[in-house]
TrEMBL record:
Residues annotated as domain NodB homology: 75-305
A molecular function GO annotation: hydrolase activity, acting on carbon-nitrogen (but not peptide) bonds
Pfam families the UniProt entry points to: Polysacc_deac_1
InterPro entries reported for this sequence: Glyco_hydro/deAcase_b/a-brl, NODB_dom
Gene3D superfamilies tied to this protein: Glycoside hydrolase/deacetylase (3.20.20.370)
One Gene Ontology term from the biological process aspect of the record: carbohydrate metabolic process
Domain of life: Eukaryota
Protein name in the entry: Chitin deacetylase
Length: 336
C-alpha cells in the first residue's frame, strides 16, 4: 500500500507565473537555456541475475514486442542495455565534445558503479552527475524510512563511484513523499540540495515552499528550487506509445527543432533534451541528434549548459522568497 505522509505533500499550483510567464535572465542575454540530459541506467535495470523476478521490459529496442520475461536471464534485453554502456555512451560523449558542451547525467548509482571508465570520463569532461536512483526500479510503495534510505544510498554511492556529490535529482519513480524528502536527506548527508527536477509543469525554473518550514521565520526558510524536466522531447518515446511512431531519428529531429524554435522565439525559456545511451546512442538516431545540435549551434544567444549551472544562475538572480501557498500546517513534519 502506498504511504502518503501528509506533512510532506507539496500543494498543486495551477497558475504558476501566469499570462506573462517569467524571464530567468539567462547569462549574456541568451534567449534560451538548453539542457542535454543523459539518463544513464545500464546495469541498474531489472535483471534476474541481480535478484529480480523479471527482466527489464521497459525502454529497450523491441519495446512491448519483447514481452515480459521471468525466471531467467533474457540475453536480448541484456545486450540492448549493454550496447548503451559499451558503445552508445561514448558516441554521445563524442558529440558533446565535438560541440564543446556539457550535459547533466541522470545517473543510476549502480550503473555508474559498474562502469568506472564512463564515471571517470564524465568528471574529466565537466559533465554534471545528478541523482536518478540507486537502481532503475520503482519504489512507489516504500515507507518513509525505506524512502529516505533509498535516497541516501543513491547519493552516497554516486559520490563513491564518481567522486562528486550530486546537487540535483530526478528519480521519476519515487513515492508521493520522495520529492519533499530529498532536501532533508541531503542535509543528513552533510550536503545541500541545489535543485529538484522532479517536475514537468513549466518551461522555466521556480521555487516551492517546503512544508516543514512553514512555522519558521521567513529569513530562515530555504525553500526548494525546481528546474523542470519533460517527457515530450525524451528519446524514450521511440519505445513508447504514443511516441515518435517510427524507430527512425528524422521525426525526432524535427520535433526537437520545432520545440527549440518556439521556445527561442518566446525567449527566456528552458529546453530539455532527455537522452538514453541505448536509444540515442544508436548510430541512426545519434546522427539525427547531431543534426539538431548543429542547428542549435548555428543560432546566436543560446546557452547550452548543465542543470547545476542553470540552478546556480537562477538562485543568484532570483533568491528564494516564500511563495505563500502554505495557508496553514498543523504540525512540523515529524521526519525532521
Amino acid at each position: 500500500m502506498v504511504h502518503v505522509e501528509e506533512n510532506c505533500q507539496i500543494p498543486r499550483d495551477f497558475i504558476g507565473f501566469g499570462e506573462e510567464s517569467h524571464d530567468p535572465q539567462w547569462p549574456n542575454g541568451a534567449r534560451i537555456a538548453v539542457s542535454f540530459i543523459l539518463n544513464y541506467e545500464e546495469g541498474g535495470e531489472r535483471n534476474v541475475a541481480d535478484g529480480d523476478d523479471v527482466m527489464e521490459p521497459y525502454l529497450w529496442e523491441k519495446g512491448s514486442a519483447g514481452g515480459v520475461k521471468t525466471g531467467g536471464r533474457h540475453l536480448n534485453t541484456e545486450h540492448d542495455f549493454e550496447y548503451g554502456s559499451r558503445s552508445g555512451v561514448w558516441r554521445i560523449m563524442r558529440l558533446m565534445k565535438e560541440f564543446g558542451w556539457q550535459m547533466t547525467i541522470w545517473a543510476i548509482a549502480k550503473a555508474m558503479e559498474r562502469n568506472e571508465p564512463f564515471s571517470k570520463a564524465c568528471i574529466r569532461e565537466g559533465h554534471e552527475i545528478g541523482a536518478h536512483g540507486y537502481r532503475w526500479l520503482e519504489f512507489w510503495d516504500y515507507d518513509l524510512e525505506a524512502d529516505k534510505k533509498y535516497i541516501k544510498d543513491t547519493i552516497m554511492t554516486l559520490k563513491q563511484a564518481t567522486g562528486e556529490m550530486p546537487v540535483g535529482f530526478y528519480f521519476g519513480r519515487g513515492t508521493p513523499n520522495t520529492h519533499a524528502l530529498c532536501p532533508i536527506v541531503w542535509k543528513e548527508c552533510g550536503s545541500e540540495l541545489l535543485y529538484s527536477s522532479e517536475a514537468y509543469n513549466d518551461d522555466v525554473p521556480y521555487w516551492v515552499d517546503l512544508p516543514w518550514e512553514a512555522s519558521l521565520p521567513e529569513n530562515e526558510r530555504k525553500g526548494m528550487l525546481v528546474v523542470p524536466y519533460n517527457y515530450d522531447c525524451n528519446d524514450g518515446k521511440f519505445h513508447m506509445s504514443p511516441g515518435f511512431v517510427t524507430s527512425a531519428g528524422q521525426l525526432y529531429e524535427q520535433y526537437l527543432k520545432s520545440t527549440f524554435d518556439m521556445l527561442y522565439r518566446e525567449g527566456g525559456k528552458l529546453m530539455n533534451i532527455p537522452l538514453h545511451s541505448r536509444i540515442s546512442g544508436k548510430a541512426g538516431r545519434a546522427e539525427a541528434l547531431r543534426n539538431f545540435m548543429k542547428y542549435v549551434n548555428d543560432k546566436p544567444d543560446v546557452w547550452v549548459t548543465t542543470r547545476r549551472n542553470i540552478a546556480k544562475h537562477y538562485k543568484e538572480k532570483f533568491p528564494y522568497k516564500p511563495v505563500g501557498i502554505w495557508i496553514s500546517v498543523s504540525k512540523h513534519c515529524e521526519i525532521l
